[in-house]
Every structure is written in C-alpha cells, then in structure tokens.
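Hello,

Our lab assistant flagged a job as stuck in the queue for most of the afternoon. It eventually completed. Since we weren't sure the result was trustworthy after the delay, we are filing this so someone can double-check. Below is the sequence as submitted and the structure that was eventually returned. Let us know if re-running is recommended.
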Amino acid sequence: MRKKLRVAAYAVCVQDGQLLLARSPADRGGHEWVLPGGGMDHGEHPNDTVVRELEEETGYHIEVTGFLGMDSIHHVIPWSYRRKVDQHGLRLVYEGRIVGGELRHEIGGSTDMAAWHPLDDVPGLTRVGLIDVALKLWRERPTTGRATTAAED
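-- returned structure --
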C-alpha cells in the first residue's frame, strides 16, 4: 500500500468577533467552509506556507502571531486501479493578524470564496472538522499544542 504524508499550515484569523474562512468549490465534493491554508511546498517553512496560502485564498497579507498547535489525521482511502493509499495529514495551526491586502475570492484554486463569519455562526456552517479543532486550539491554547477530543476530555 502506498503511504503518503501531507504537511499543511492553516491560520485562525479572528477580527471583531468574526472568523475568516474560505469555501471549497462544488466540484470538490460540495461547498464547505475551510480554514485558509494548505499544503507546504518542499523546502518551505510552515510559517511561510500559511502566509502564502492565506494570501492566495483570501487576498489578505497576515502576520503570524502565534503557533496554536497541530492536528494529525490518518486514514486509508481509495486511490486508483483498485489500490488504496495510507494517507497521513499533519496540520499545523497558527494564529494570524491581517496586516494588509483586501478580501477577494481565489480564482482557479482550491477555494472559490472567502468571507468573514461571526464566531457564533460557525457551528451552523457546513464546514470541515479542522475548523472546530482550530477554534478549540485558539480558545484553549493547550501547552501540548494538541486539542483534546471528547473522548480524551
């Protein structure tokens, strides 16, 4: 079985009680809100990854103001020709502050929209699970850099 590791960096940007999110396009399995960020290029520092990805997906320039923690996901998924891939994702979560740029939507990328959402409205959005993990890291700031799950609480 093929093994694949993907390292990605994401940013929690909260301003005036609102969270900045991007939306995955319908052709990627349906519209769902995601945390701005994405895959690290070979040789790239994760701080640079999150700054680059956030600008690509939202138009904003950010300053990384802190490292909140990480999340690790692991699952086996279908790949091609009846083969499967053992997928491991390491997701680094940063806190960011908007320092420039202007909100815009990404064209021809992995997202199709960027928007601010009131923090209280986030639980009602169609969203990926990483958003909940990231907000828990942001709120609790665990010294271990790992958000506990309901089973671990």
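-- support follow-up --
The delay was a queue issue, not a problem with the job. The result is valid. The longest strand covers residues 60-78. The domain at 2-140 is CATH 3.90.79.10 (Nucleoside Triphosphate Pyrophosphohydrolase).
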